[in-house]
Amino acid sequence: MKKMFLKLNLFALQFMIVFSVIVSLLGVFVHQNTYTGNLIQWRPGSGHQFTRFNEAEKTTDVDILILGSSHASVGFDTRVFEASGFKTMNLGSSAQRPIQSEYILNRFVDRMNPKLVIFEVYPAMFSHFGVESVIDMLSHTTIDKELAWLALRSKNIKVYVTFLYRYLSQTLGFDQHAPERRQTKRQSYIPGGFVENTNPPKFKDKDLDKVKDWRLEERQKLALERVINRLAKKHINVLLVRAPITQKLYSAYRNNDEVNQYFSKLGPFVDMNSYDGLDNIDLYYDLSHLKQEGVEKMNHLLLEYIKKNVNLNAGQ
């Protein structure tokens, strides 16, 4: 029985490898999804990640570097920080988890040499591996050995196929990424990595499940802690920030205090949900994302906190 189980596992692994290679080769040479369906997750222009990474490759010596999920990429307006004299780069992206943030930090921290890293910590991003985020990066940047290792760790067939497709395209010289449009029907890419929702969807309220708990997986917690430790060794300030969400969504989780206590133990931490005025439903276009008016209001409040509590000259 044990031998049969091992043989089945070996067969499944071999099948996954062969299947991934075949689908990837079809994607490279056919250049269409006629045969590959949804397996090759090639999404040019999604989230402006290609433009953001290109800008990041040319950016040096910033005051503030921002990491995190879409709450960071569409919630921290680099123009507001720049207006206060802080050169800022926002490397947040959709569904980015600490494991992916760690890769991004390791790739860019030495080049950018920030005085402060703002790490947006949305508790929902501490569950699951972050397949969407890995695919997003594979689709929009040059693959290096660290990104290849990140893809391998995902244990996901769509990630494997996307990785092989992009790697083969890159190696064989077919890696031609059309320029992204900086402005779409709903969004505009702002230099510094921020994405402004210029025409957000109309707010639609929805019923939530019964009260539940945020689930912080150990692998995501360990990635966050490694990031904090690396920044400490480089004498770089770090600030953990919970971006505001609607009171309805915030109250749907009963362990907010427990989650905040965990973040507070790691270092400087601020929960923007505790600030007056940010619970106004009119500031949101969905249950967890701010309209531009809300973004600017939150950013000014956060800047006040930073100016009072963070010494941006320390260790520099």
Characteristics of this structure?
316 residues, alpha/beta, Rossmann fold, two-stranded antiparallel sheet, 12 helices, globular
CATH class: Alpha Beta
Ranges with pLDDT <50 over ≥5 residues? 7-13, 23-39
Q: How many angstroms does the end-to-end distance come to? A: 62 Å
Strand content: 5-15%
- So what's the overall shape? globular
By DSSP (H or I, 4+ residues per run), the number of helices equals: 12
Cα gyration radius (Å):
21 Å
User: What's the architecture in CATH terms?
Assistant: 3-Layer(aba) Sandwich
How many strands, which pairing sense, and closed or not: the largest β-sheet? Answer: 5 strands, parallel
Give structural notes.
With 316 residues, the chain is of the alpha/beta class. It has one domain (24-198, 213-309): Rossmann fold (3-Layer(aba) Sandwich). Helices cover 47% and strands 9% of the residues. It has helices at residues 2-30, 49-57, 70-73, 78-83, 98-112, 131-140, 145-153, 157-172, 218-233, 247-251, 256-266, 292-309; strands at residues 64-67, 88-90, 116-120, 187-190, 194-197, 237-242, 269-271. A 5-stranded parallel β-sheet has the order 2-1-3-6-7. Helix 1 crosses helix 8 and helix 6 runs parallel beside helix 8. The N and C termini lie far apart (62 Å). The relative contact order is 0.15.
Q: How are the elements arranged and paired?
A:
Blueprint: H1 2-30, H2 49-57, E1 64-67, H3 70-73, H4 78-83, E2 88-90, H5 98-112, E3 116-120, H6 131-140, H7 145-153, H8 157-172, E4 187-190, E5 194-197, H9 218-233, E6 237-242, H10 247-251, H11 256-266, E7 269-271, H12 292-309
Parallel strand pairs: 1-2, 1-3, 3-6, 6-7
Antiparallel strand pairs: 4-5
Helix pairs in contact: 1-8, 2-6, 5-9, 6-8
